Amino acid sequence: MSRLVCSICFGLIALCMAGLHAADREYIVKGMVLRADPANRSFVVSHEKIAGLMDSMIMPFDVRDTKDLAGVVPGVVVEFTLVVGDKAAYATNIRIQRYQSVEQDPRTARRLAVMRQMAGLENKPGLSTTPLEIGARVPDFTLIDHTRQPVRLSSLAGKVVVVNFIYTRCALPQFCLRVTNNFGVLQKRFAKELGRDVVLLTITFDPQRDTPDVLAAYAAQWKPAAKTWHFLTGPVAEVRKVCALFGVEYFPDEGLMNHSLRTAVIDRTGTLVASVEGNSYSPEQLGDLVFTLVSG
Predict the structure, then answer these.
(1) CA end-to-end span of the chain, whole Å?
(2) What is the DSSP annotation of 235-290?
């Protein structure tokens, strides 16, 4: 089944179940939230295949209580129970899946937690260490891309901007390489919209090593089109400021980097609408999130 919003699916499910007069059936659903509507007690999810029920798709789900949607915002990965009865279906027991690093060393966790103190950020006037909240306007910034051209966020007004963070020496393929590959998938899916409606920004948090030339060599794997996907670097202080805005944590460790993973989505007005943690989502789900903003 195609990945389209299927608002009639619940009706079909209810009809089938009514014909069987069976007891309520429960299914575990996992996916990324695309939209939340507490006023109407519903949310939209790009979900994985639901075993025994339906293929992966974009789907609206109802809840019985607005409180069930606490913390449910675009970009969060959730797991919940779908209850299908003979006349209706609803979602319950919604659990937000927080990103957990594969690094289990408590010392590493502590070092990530105090990264900003180690970097002395709290002593730098005018630099907030509090990440932006969903719904906040993203402050303007300027960085240099892999073609040595300046890229100013405010110059992208009117476009959906998707931002991720990497460093080119990342040794583990499930981290920086995976999130960059996700953008490679977006580049193909939104080939017609790139530049006009969508722009991708990949920012290094290792600017001392990731010069424009280094980023250009790294970017060549995905053949980014000019002015549609920028691999960005810049002065250390400016990169640090941008990373802090989006809640990206990193610090050097034995020649490499320990770091968090974050993908941000900014709408056409410059508002942060999603801040996706980790790497447990699929590129299709990220694409569905972008699609809701491009087509909305």
Answers:
(1) 22
(2) -HHHHHHHHHHTT--EEEETTEEEE--EEEEE-TTSBEEEEEESS-S-HHHHHHHH
* Pair 124, 64 in one domain: no
What is the token pair recorded at 274?
């999603």
227 vs 7, residue with greater confidence: 227
Q: What is the tens place of the pLDDT at every residue in 35-76?
A: 999 999 999 999 999 999 999 999 999 999 999 999 999 999
b/e for 229-261, b at 16 or more Cβ within 10 A? Answer: bbbbbbeeebbbbbbbbbbbbbbeeeeebbbbb
The two three-digit tokens of residue 203, written as one number = 């920012």
- Distance CA(40)–CA(229), nearest Å, equals 37
Take residue 59 and report the two structure tokens written for it. 């789907």
CATH of the domain at 23: 2.40.50.320
Non-local (6+) Cβ contacts of 188 within 8 A are none
Please tell me whether residues 257 and 286 are part of one structural domain: yes
Number of domains in the chain: 2
In a domain, 101, yes or no: no
Which of 9, 88, 12 lies closest to 45 in space, CA to CA? 9
Q: Which of 170, 148, 159 is nearest to 258 (CA)?
A: 170
Measure the CA–CA gap between 106 and 104, rounded to whole angstroms.
6
